[in-house]
Every structure is written in structure tokens, then in C-alpha cells.
Here is the input.
Amino acid sequence: MSFLDKSTSRPAKSSKVRLYSSRFDPYSASLRYVLRAKGIDFEDCYINLQDKPEWYNDINPTGEIPCVECGDEVIPESMIIHDYLEAKFPQVKMQRTGDAYKWSKDRLFVTRFKQNVVPKITGCLKNPNDNVDDLLAKLKKVDEILGMRGTDYIGGDKPNYADYYLFAWVEVIPSLKAAHDLKIDIHNDKAYKNYFAWVFRMDKDKHIEQDRVDRKVNFQTRTEYLKTVKAGSPNMKVGL
Ligand SMILES: N[C@@H](CCC(=O)N[C@@H](CS)C(=O)NCC(=O)O)C(=O)O
Here is the structure.
């Protein structure tokens, strides 16, 4: 893993897939989980979002992470990257884990989650009191959808990209709660039964666990990181 800021030059081309990301970024985490599930060897390049290298604009003119580089091919936008990885490395399927109807429902789920729930999670980072009730209401909806699916995972009997996308975001919530001292206690609430059963299963997923080991991103380090965000000076290197 490397940390890149204004003072660093663009890394030389690699024979591996390279993920330009940020250590605690959920969009990037979902891609790492999928890369692992597909068995793809990849390297992490962490961009310092507070002090971005100028050359990063050549990679993504919007300046956003994540971005994937594979030889001469550079792809931004998390959902387009998911599609690119699926097309480029089709051996292990992470999207077509059922028929066309299931694929569409999964995509709809991820799209609506990104539109409706992600802004509540990021909103909680800055202004928890204005966002937490909405977030909890939306998680109830997620619970209903998981219940209606009736399978262990959105993917069916094993996780697919929609599971990894969802998990990469909701795994932030316990740290948000700790960093902002939020009084949320929904673990024993029946309205979240399916959701927590799913979280419990995902939490034991080996690709997610490997990510925690490789990057040392876990409840403690993420909480410390969110505290540095709250204090106005994000420190991407906490716990290393
Ligand atoms: N639509 C983009 C959103 C990515 C995004 O919001 N990235 C944030 C980090 S979570 C970012 O790069 N912010 C820094 C910046 O815009 O300068 C995607 O899905 O990849």
C-alpha cells in the first residue's frame, strides 16, 4: 500500500490491477471485497484527498476516488468500476448471480441505496442529529427488502457485489455511533432482525476479514479516523 500526496510522483505502470482509493472510503472497500472474491491480485494506492497529487487529475478529472487502473485502462466511478471488473474478470461472477430479473433487482437495490442511504451515512459524519433518524428509517426498509429476498445474501447463497456494496457502507455505522456518541440502540429491535442477521453473516466473510488484516481498518481504527474527521483534520494513517 502506498500513500500519495502532492509531493509524490505518479507511480509507474503496474502489471497488477491498481486501485486508487482512500483507506477508509466505503466505495473503495466494496471494490476491494469484490476484487478479492474474484481472486484478482491488486495493489492499493491511497490518495491524500486533503493534499491531492496534481497528476491525479489526469487519472480522474473530477478528482474523486475510487479509480481503477489496469494497464492503459483507467476507470473512475464506483459503479462503472464494478461493471468493468465484472466484464474484465468474468471467471467469478459477482453480478449475474441469477436471471435477468434478479440482476435488475440487485442493481435497483444498489442504485437506490446509493441515492437514498449513502447520503444519510455521509450526512451523519457532519451532522448526525439531522440525519440519524432518517438513516434508521432507511435501514428498516433495507431490513424489509432482505426479509422479502428470503436468502442468506442478496447474491443468494453467497455474497455478490450488492452485498459487498451494502456492507462497505453499513460497517461504518458502529464507528459513527462511537465517534459522535450517538444514542442508537436497535440491535434487539425486531424491525432490524433480517438486517442484523445479514450483518452477522457478512461480518464473517473471509474477504472482508482479509481487508481488516491487510489494511488495519476495523472498528477501533475507523472510530479514531472519524474522530479526526470530526475534528477537521482527517488522518488516514491512524492505527498503522
Ligand atoms: N460517484 C462517485 C462518488 C465518489 C466519491 O464521492 N468520492 C469521494 C470520497 S467518498 C471523494 O473522492 N471526495 C474527494 C473529492 O471529491 O475531492 C463514485 O461512486 O465513485
In short: The mean pLDDT is 97. The first strand starts at residue 2 and ends at 4. The chain has two domains: 2-93, 100-204. Residues 25, 27, 49, 63-66, 77-79 surround glutathione (CB under 6 Å).
